[in-house]
Amino acid sequence: MNEYTQKLHAGSEFPVIKVPTLAGAEVQLGHTRSPYDWQLVVVYRGRHCPMCSKYLTQLSAVTEQLHSLGVDVIAVSADSKEQLERHLEELTVTFPIAYNLSLAQMRALGLYVSDPRSPEETDHPFAEPGLFVVNAQQRLHVVDISNNPFVRPELNTLVSGLKWIRDVNNNYPIRGMRKEVG
């Protein structure tokens, strides 16, 4: 058992995680901006990861669809302000990105954490990918945590699934909450 990683459970309350944005504001992950009532929180490895850059670009392409479902979008990494500023020179995104995710915050989110392989990669420990959909009650509706950048939810499938979940006629509950008995 890994003493450093405690996974978040579907249906549990999203932890209080506050991080800065380049706009100078501090945001609390899982808390939406008006007019949205749900939030998609994407944790990515950082500027050093080309797969993360690709995923953020793909996320930008579906952001309008997510917004139409009432889902706000934010991404965050452990990168510094300077690293994020340089990364944004290479990206075109349509959602806010926060930075300075701490080790304690990574652990609170149940993320896998890696050390850089070299100083050229990056200069700090970083979170492996995580994706969290937080509902209007601040509960985890969807949780996806990976230990490497090669396994992440396919975004068009995620959008389609959230469309199904958000349709009140489907009465779709949070999945994965069955309690073992006996």
Automatic annotation (TrEMBL):
The keyword Ribonucleoprotein does not apply. GO terms for molecular function: peroxidase activity. InterPro entries: AhpC/TSA (IPR000866), Thioredoxin-like_sf (IPR036249), Thioredoxin_domain (IPR013766). Keywords: Oxidoreductase, Peroxidase. Residues 8-164 form the Thioredoxin domain. The keyword Cell membrane does not apply. This is Thioredoxin peroxidase.
